[in-house]
Amino acid sequence: MFIHYVKGHQVLPRTSKHFRIYAQSKTKMQRDLGSFPLPPVIRVKLKDSGFSVVEDVIEMKPTELSREIGISKEESLEILKMVRESTSSSLPCQPKTPSNSASSSSQRQQQHPEGNKRTVTALEMLRYEKSSPAIVTFCEDLDEMLGGGVPLCKITELCGAPGVGKTQTCIQLAVDVQIPQCFGGVEGETIYIDTEGSFLPQRAADIAVAMVGHCRRIADTNDEEQQTALAEFSMEKLLSGIHCFRCHDYTELLALVNLLPEILDKHKKVKLIVIDSIAFHFRHDFDDFSLRTRLLNGLAQSLIKIASDYRLAVVLTNQMTTHIGNGPSHLIPALGESWGHACTIRIILFWKDNQRYANLYKSPNKQEMTVPYQITMDGLRSVPRLENEQASTSTSFRHDEPQDGNEDDHLNPCKRLRPSENQR
Amino acid sequence: MTLLSVGLCPALTKETVDALNGGGIKTVLDFICADVEDLAQKCSISYKVLQSIRRLLLAQYSSFPVNGADLHDDVMSSVAILSTGCSSLDELLDGGLYTSELTEITGGPATGKTQLCMTTAASVATTAQQNVLYIDTNGGFSSQRLQDIMAARGNTDKIMAAAFQRLRCARTFDLFELLSLLEMTKSSMDSGSDAFYASLKLVVVDSVTAVVAPVLGGQQTEGHGMMIHLARSLKALAVEYSVAVLLTNNQVRGDGTQRKPALGRTWSHVPHCRLLLTHDRSDDASLCTVNRPINREARIIKSGRQPINVSCTFKIDDSGICS
Amino acid sequence: MALRKIQRLGIEPPIVERLNKHGIFTCQDLLSKTKLELLRMTGMTDSRLTAILLVASRACVPRQTTALCMYDRAGSEELPAFFRTSLTQLDHVLHGGLPVGTISEIAGPPGCGKTQFCIMLSVLATLPVAMGGLDGAVAYIDTESAFSAERLVEVARCRFPNHFSQDEAFVALTSRVHVYLESTCRSLLARLQNFEEDLITKGIRLVILDSVASLVRKEFDSSLQGNMVERTNLLSKQAAILKYLAESFSIPTFQNSKL
Lengths: 424, 323, 259
Hints:
The complex is a heterotrimer of chains A (about 425), B (about 325) and C (about 260).
Chain A: E1 5-6, E2 9-10, H1 40-48, H2 54-57, H3 62-69, H4 73-87, H5 98-111, E3 119-121, H6 122-130, H7 140-146, E4 155-160, H8 166-176, E5 189-194, H9 201-218, H10 224-232, H11 235-240, E6 242-246, H12 250-266, E7 270-276, H13 280-283, H14 289-309, E8 313-318, E9 320-323, E10 330-333, H15 336-340, E11 345-352, E12 355-362, E13 369-376, E14 379-382, H16 419-422
Parallel strand pairs in A: 4-8, 4-11, 5-6, 5-7, 7-8
Antiparallel strand pairs in A: 1-2, 9-10, 11-12, 12-13, 13-14
Chain B: H1 14-22, H2 28-33, H3 36-43, H4 47-61, H5 68-78, E1 81-82, H6 87-92, E2 97-98, E3 102-107, H7 113-126, E4 131-136, H8 143-152, H9 157-166, E5 167-171, H10 175-191, H11 195-198, E6 200-206, H12 208-212, H13 222-241, E7 244-253, E8 259-261, H14 264-268, E9 273-279, E10 296-302, E11 311-317, E12 320-322
Parallel strand pairs in B: 3-7, 3-9, 4-5, 4-6, 6-7
Antiparallel strand pairs in B: 1-2, 7-8, 9-10, 10-11, 11-12
Helix pairs in contact in B: 7-8, 10-13
Chain C: H1 13-21, H2 27-31, H3 35-42, H4 46-60, E1 64-66, H5 67-76, E2 82-83, H6 88-93, E3 98-99, E4 103-108, H7 114-126, E5 137-142, H8 149-159, H9 167-176, E6 177-181, H10 185-193, H11 195-202, E7 204-210, H12 212-219, H13 225-249, E8 253-258
Parallel strand pairs in C: 4-8, 5-6, 5-7, 7-8
Antiparallel strand pairs in C: 2-3
Helix pairs in contact in C: 7-8, 10-13
């Protein structure tokens, strides 16, 4: 570089791209070593020895670095690995136990559209999204409202007052996720995390039996694949695909979410994680609200990462709390407003005039909408439109024949359901 | 700060560097802050040599004042204005999103922040035909929705296919991964090996709170420092590479019922322009059965260019955000 | 399990010492902290810290089971999965009766018969399994002093005259129903927190709480904002303890509340 002095100041040649003379082209903004997750004692040692940016250490050998700043060889190797991984264009492998590391990274590569790359074009994302089927709820109105069903790779939250049907919906989804692919289903298993003790295996058995019956009715006798799938399809098989965990406090819940990657590597077919409910243990015995917010935020990020990496759906249920504001008091979802940002899709379930409704409060690609639904002996079903006057209370356990129709019918976007029509 | 090494300038020979290191001077910063006379005595190097090294280092490493007129010319030639896809919002923002600036959208849950991000990304990819990097940190991105927005705005399949090639999506759920991603973006723009980064004009980060909130608080202050690293990284990306950066921030209820943007006062200084989205939908879900259009409003709460507390209305439909 | 001390996890002693210095003694303390806090406290690198967190998580994680195992276990136990209330229509709608291992609640306006229902359930629980009972003792936690031993005996005599024909049967019945009188929220909470011992020694197979609301109503004025939070906290704590007891001992818990 040709340097000459003009009145004591150096004049740089103009480059077309970077005219700005805030920083020289040599010392571009490099990543500070302090922005890595290092313990403060090591950070101080690095700074004292003059290493402040990535470029200072990246070419060094572990023994050289450990000698210069006075740390062990293992620690310096780890620091160098961390720094080098951050500058590569591929994603780092998750730090796992040595036994699983090989299998888990390959599992992630298979599941992820990006493979190991950090970014991917929107076109590839679109193909990936279109190839991910949604989990049907067996209530057509609800499925239409959600655009096919509960989507994979996202967190869906169900909020509602006690008794409105959150646990019933969760059990229904835990059974529905196992519908074989030849019937248009996802054919996956469930991890059911129960924090309230409201999961009843007998109820799951009822719903499973109804679902098996439905599949048998609609199966095509000529379709060999469907017939083979049906042969093994039974209530026992469905129940064995629901892995249950009972968490008695929030520490067990946190521990379980920390271990989910290990558990998912063991049960590779899991496509749905249900936490019923996420609110229970965070609502009592918690004096420190900032700790609660921090834990919940961390939990939300862990869950969305798992949903994305392992390509599964996460369904959470939340309780309601009374909001006493300026107007009359009403119910709002619990866990505070910061939690409202955590879920991708939020559905609020409520009662009105002896009818259960589901309101899609938040969704990335569907309009806000309210649809009625009911809970029968066979599980979650839609409210038949012609018989709306006779569909008095939803607690009547009529044996409702589910609407005939193959699950792989993509529901045509029809006009928005106006609940006022139903109440005529 | 750079380490002192042989060859930084002609007078820095190996013996000089070793002598300086021995005296505790390891970086350029240490050298410049030290007193030259003391250094001459401690390291037994001649005063004249040290002065010449100091002059050279200062010339190389300090920043220089720039003429205002030159700066204006530079801005006029390099800054672009990207439309958000909604005319009332563009008017509110004096044209749209400015490159070399950080614009933040804040609001409560379900107010339309992600929808605005996706509408802007779609508009920049189709109309402005520039490249977009969409960083999703909380799973709200849906390329299906992006396609719907473009289709509803009357774009043909061919245009949409081309636009989809211009859009890249990255999913990071961790603050450190986000920092690595931003550094990688900058180095790709420097090296010029990937043509995508040559005409990258918009980077969307949705949302910043999701990755920063878990590290704040508790018995440590490092999290706060990490937030500042993120702020510096984003600002460098915007200013040095002439890119428009669009961020999403959540709104939380502080003590009492006063709502405010998350991440605190320190973060409030980071974006150049802040937009607040609100809606008048009732919290009470049981009122949702009544069919009523939702009134949505966008208000400027911080800007270097526009008067604040000016607002406009918008609505969300199939084509994204529109007037 | 959450309160398990970290020194029993097999982590190196110097690290345990460093953690203890910062007030981290149990797994709960450890898992509630963010990564950055722990990096500062322990001075360990990221991967070693992650390994320790995984060890602590494995110590706290609940047991894994499948719905099929739960279903089979519930069906195969000597005691039934449902406690029949002897009202046939109610039993039919409840799928067999009050489910064992969870909390059931009855609510209604004053005078509709809640306490009578509780007394009847007490009688039923002491009956042998063949007659639809649980063949065990009953813990009746009374907060309103509404329990009447005479009424208990009367119900038994009129409902099951054959079974309760002699005095020994009545003595057996009354000795199996243990009544606990609690008049303040605090004493009720204390009773519940130390209930495990009683449940084991007395062979209790049904717990009745009559009623959940009366004490809270008396002690917390619901018009004051601050009280609502405290009240909710207290009720949630009670509920959590009852749930835990119900599940660990596989007993139905029945609580009574006023509208």
